[in-house]
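From the shared-data thread, chain only:
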Amino acid sequence: MVGRRPASRIVEHPRIWLHFTLQVSLVVVIFVAGLYLGVFMRDRNLIKDQILVNARSHFQSIVLTRLWSAGYGGVYVEKKKGVESNPYLKDPEVVARDGRVFTLRNPAMMTREVSELAAADGAFLFHITSLRPVNPGNAPDEFETAALKSFELGAPEAWGEETRGDATLFRYMAPLVVEPACLHCHSERENRVGDIRGGISVTLDISDVKAAMGTSHAVILGLVAFSTAGVIGVFLLFVLRLMRRLTAADAKIAMLAVTDELTGLANRRAFFERFEEEADRAGRYGTPLSLVMFDIDHFKAVNDTFGHPMGDTVLTEVARLLSANARTSDILARYGGEEFAMLIPAMSCEEAARAAEKLRTVIEVNDPVLEGPRVKVTISAGVADAASVRSEGGSLRDNLLKAADRALYRAKAEGRNRVVTHRRGMDAQLDLE
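Structure, as tokens:
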């Protein structure tokens, strides 16, 4: 009995919410992933920095040990079983008064033997080398060769990672600079203080560290997935709740757009939308269509005597009674002020008049339900149908409105509280009157 409500724009466009949800979810994924990636990169860089600091520390330790040894021109050790003299030194052995033999351990030899001890322990490895080694055993490998060449170009150090079998190694190398103490063993003609004679490489096994970093990476990926799922889940709950609220609000707005706030009936706008549809259908197919215009009798007197709150009560009660006793297919609306309009599809003027008379009677006999002062409420009605105005020029809708309004005017002129049906010639008769 009311006009059709416009469909909710929110319900009509679910893709808007889908795109919104996907876009926000993407932002969440990027943000969370970026956050954890930043933490992971920071931790990885801290670990790498710590490994580099450790390698530098080992390098400095061996360099200090070499400087101590060089400061004394080398260190003599007793030549026991398994101890060999350095074949690249001139007269490396001395004999004590008690017959014991001591052999010289220069810094290079000492570095190699310390490296062998460290390698046996599995901690780290030293290797002294140069691009022009005297001892073939000190020849540089690929990493050391590249590092030594970079030192000649001014690089202060070099480092990198490489894989040997199942092990991951961290390689570090820094140059060996000729110190004054070094000249005890090296000719001043061939070396000057400050020259770079080669370098010492430090090799650390970081397999355990890499494994721990891999585990940390997997944990972070798990945290990214868990955190992302949690945030998106909370966001989806928020979106669903927001959608429900907005859908309800949108439906309410849509309802208010076509509903009279006071009576709850269709408003004038919604009525005319349906009127256009039904008039077009009746005009195209020649089907019956009737229009009834109702007006509350002496409504101004009700407002003037009892006040506007009572007038609103009368309007509300009349609307309720009309709506409760009309057919569900009838289109009932508050036309304006104290006027109501009812469009009745598929019903002739005579049938519509009987329906209007029924409604008039309902209003007349039910006025005691009004609360407060005793108010006598009646209505007048004018009825017209498409058949009575089809021959007239202009739009069927406008002609029906004019005809029903003329019939209503006639009902009021004849004493009110009655139903008058429009008939041909009524307009001319009213003009004469």
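The domain at 268-432 is CATH 3.30.70.270 (Alpha-Beta Plaits).
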